[in-house]
Design goal:
Helix content: 40-55%
Order of helices and strands: EHEHEHHEHEHEH
Strand order of the largest sheet: 1-4-3-2-5-6
Strand content: 15-25%
Length: about 160
Amino acid sequence: MKLIKREQIAEVARIIKTAGKIIVFTNGCFDIIHAGHVRYLAEARKLGDCLIVGLNSDRSVRELKGPTRPVNHQEDRGEVVAALAAVDYVVIFDERTAESLISETKPDIYVKGGDYCIEDIPEAAIVARHGGKTVLIPEVVGRSSSNIIKKISEST
């Protein structure tokens, strides 16, 4: 099963690392999956042997994006992300940032979109402390869940 419980992630990561595999980790809301998400996750997966996606819980998405989000429930979002070929594991987390989750997984590579600056990513320092590196992948311009929601609301 690709969608794993939070309590399992440290052990799963330990097994992968013991096998000598490179863990790539990313996180996000992934509310309405679009081509930008698919391309981003495919590029992230190319950086290592195993891609773990931390998925913001419904509560943390509301905290980050506002009371009308997410559009899709966390179990549905998790199932969709887990179904993507590039993704090896999905774990739902309830915090605002993935700092705690990253401390548990200790990924070799942490990936975020090109709309971020490494200096502004709190998780980057944790990754570096464990000997990993943070990589920014260019965003797919114009592709976002927020843009999709805006387009839908304008057409109704």
